[in-house]
Structures are given as C-alpha cells and as structure tokens.
Amino acid sequence: MADTASSPGPETSRLEPDERRDQILQCAQRLFSEHGVGAVSNTDIARAAGISRGLLNHYFGSRRELYRDVVRRMMDVPPVPVPEYVPGASVADRVAQSLDGWLELLSRNRSIWLTATGIAGCGGDEELEAIIDRARDRAVARAIEVTGLGPAVRDHPEIHAMLRGFSGMAEATTREWLRHGRLTRKQVHVLLESTLLTIINDVIPDATAVCE
Amino acid sequence: MADTASSPGPETSRLEPDERRDQILQCAQRLFSEHGVGAVSNTDIARAAGISRGLLNHYFGSRRELYRDVVRRMMDVPPVPVPEYVPGASVADRVAQSLDGWLELLSRNRSIWLTATGIAGCGGDEELEAIIDRARDRAVARAIEVTGLGPAVRDHPEIHAMLRGFSGMAEATTREWLRHGRLTRKQVHVLLESTLLTIINDVIPDATAVCE
DNA sequence: CCTGCTATTGACAGTTAGACAACTATCGCT
DNA sequence: AGCGATAGTTGTCTAACTGTCAATAGCAGG
CA–CA separation, B54 vs B61, rounded Å? Predict the structure, then answer.
C-alpha cells in the first residue's frame, strides 16, 4: 500500500485489552478486504487503528497469528440461521428453506464472506487451513442435520466427504453470484437444491454400495 | 528456510534464455511445493537453480511475477486428455469417459495439482486470479464440448457460470480423494457423474426458464 | 499526592526485495 | 586468433518489513 487515506482515526488511547484487540481486528479485516492481504503491511494496520506497530506484536505475537485471528473472526460470524424444524415438512422443503437462509445470510455479509473464502488456502499454514476446514465442517454438519442424514453418516463416513465436495460447489456457485454477478440468487438456489437432492437420493445409495 | 539440502544442481552455465527460464521455474515450483510459498525466499530459489540472485530479477522482474509464472506453468500442464468422439455413445457415456480421463490425469500429477489449486486465491493479485480462472474455464469448455451444450450456452451464458460452480465441486471432491483419502476414486466418479447429469437434465431447464 | 500496574510507545536488530554497476565467461563470426 | 555480443556473477545500496525490548505514559487505589 502506498498511502492510506487516513480514516478519522479513533485517536483514543488506553483501551481495555479486549476492546483494543477487537478494534485492531476490525481494522485489519477492513484493510484486508479492501486491498488484499499481501498489500497490507503491519504498519498500515497500526496506522489505521491509531496505534504503534509494536502493539500489534504485543497482542498477536506475529503477523501470521494476527492473520489467523482475522480469518477466525470472519468465519465465526455466521450465527447459524436456525434450521427451523417444521413437523409436516419434507426433506426437500427443509433443504429449500435452509438454503434460502444461507443465501440470505451471505447476501448480507457479502464482502466479508468473499474475503474469508478468497483468503483460503494461502499455502503452508496448517492452523489456518484447520480454521477454514472447521467452518466448512460446520456448514456440512448443518446440511446433515437438515437432510436427516445423521444415522447414515455414522455408518458411512464417506458421505461426509461427499457433502464437503458439495460445499465446494456451493462456494464456487456463490462466488459466481456475489462476486461476478454471472448468476442470480434464484438460479443459485435451484442449482444447489437440485444437486443436493440428487446427491441424497441417487448418489449416496450407489456410492456407498460401491465401497463395501 | 534454513538450509536447502542442495539437489545435485545442474552446475551448468550459459543456457539459452528459454532453457534458463524453464529451469528456474522448475526449481521454484519444486521448492514451493515442498516448503510452501511463504517459506521460500528468492535466495533459496537462486541457490537451488545454481544461479545468482540477481538473475532472478533479470528474468522475472519481481518476485510476484516469478510466482505468477510458476502458477501459470503448473496450470498449463494438463494437455487435454482428448474428448474422443465415439459415434454411438450417449451423453452419459461421453461424460463417464471424460471424467475417467480427468481423474486418471490427476492421479498421475497428484502433487502438482494439489499445489496449484492450493496456492489458488492467495489474495489481492488480479492477474493471478485471472490465470487460475482461465484454467478453470478451459475445464468448463471441455465439459461443454463433451456434453454437447455448445448451442445452449450461446443463448444462456449463465449455464457457463453453473458449470464453473460444478468445477468447484469437482475440485473439492478431488481434494477429498487425493489429499485426505476420504473418498475413493470410484466414489468421486459416481458423485461427479450423477451431479453433472442432473445439472444438464434437470437444473438447466429450470434455471434458464427462471431468468426470462 | 504517591505508588503500583499495565497499556503503549519508540528505537533497534535482522532480513528481504529490488535496482544498479562493474566485471567475467562464453559463444559466433570473420 | 581476434572481436563483438550477450549470459551470468558479484557486490553494494536503499527502502521496507517484521519482531523484540527497555522505557514511558496513563489510570487505578490507598
């Protein structure tokens, strides 16, 4: 980054550690989103937060750890849009409703989500991979709950892996929608719904049979 | 990196520019694969290639450009496993055969592919994104050819975006197979085949209708 | 007002990328 | 053999970045 058109910096000093931590993370997240991770130095972040560079290391140790915490903060945002169990609803209904909730959530947190998933496998950091992996697993777990696949997954762990594959498709499709505008929300919905139902109804019986 | 257990370095000098370029890229690719991008310095690469540091900049300008060229080289590897047009074959047959060729190719170039896709969206570099995007588009173009969707795509460009979504699933699923061993090759095949056929037969009619 | 605690700073050390200049080695040509 | 042209080397210099640590400044409670 060349120059940071300095925002109206808080100009305050001596915050409580938790507040300071949070404020720094917020600034870092914004800068990463705006300029890309590689183009933002610790100096930039410190300036944006109105603090000295040394304080970054005091709070986060190394840059890598700061980076990890930013990603963690981003990924932890989604507070689960409640599966909503309605007695008379079919699996297809529940899938449709859950998908809708997910898409709604993403359309609200557009830039955060794009940054967090774009950051992704930046190469070499085990723990970072694990953080993103965990977020993905949470999404898959929700899918399992919604589709009522719980018992089947216990016997066939590969179903879990397949749903992780599906979540790759969900991410890619959502990028096409939110980032490039090459799909509409409705189209994403139809695509993901049909695909997920196919996986449940057609693929899983075949593929699990193959394994044994 | 502390010390690079020096490979049996070519020890030669005065190569043709093209050869030298290629040799440097090869070394960089190997180091990136082995130690991760962030852990390899220009000095490491120069040492591994048996040349001076300055020559790196002579050939590639900046580190970022070297990095881009490494990724470009990785992505350009797949020499298209020939679609093979057999007259009597159905779409499903052609999809199955093409998928099989793709999986075979990947199982052979396992580590290269994992590195290339893992490197992926490292954040912030437009041109790098474009390179990866282009590789993905090539895969999608092959899928369109195999499935005979050419005419439909001309009228409905969103089909293209959907197939890009599918390619996200293909990547994620393949990672589950090649990297984590949580799926077998057969399972990946069944999953991708069914999903792709569903998209072609069920989703595309629905979704394109929605658009108009 | 003083005193202890701690958030915060500022300067320092080590490393790296990138630019540049001067020099050397090797090839192709006459 | 001699002579350019060009690939490659070495070394240095600058700017920027990260991580560390002793010193400082702001805010409690007595």
Answer: 10
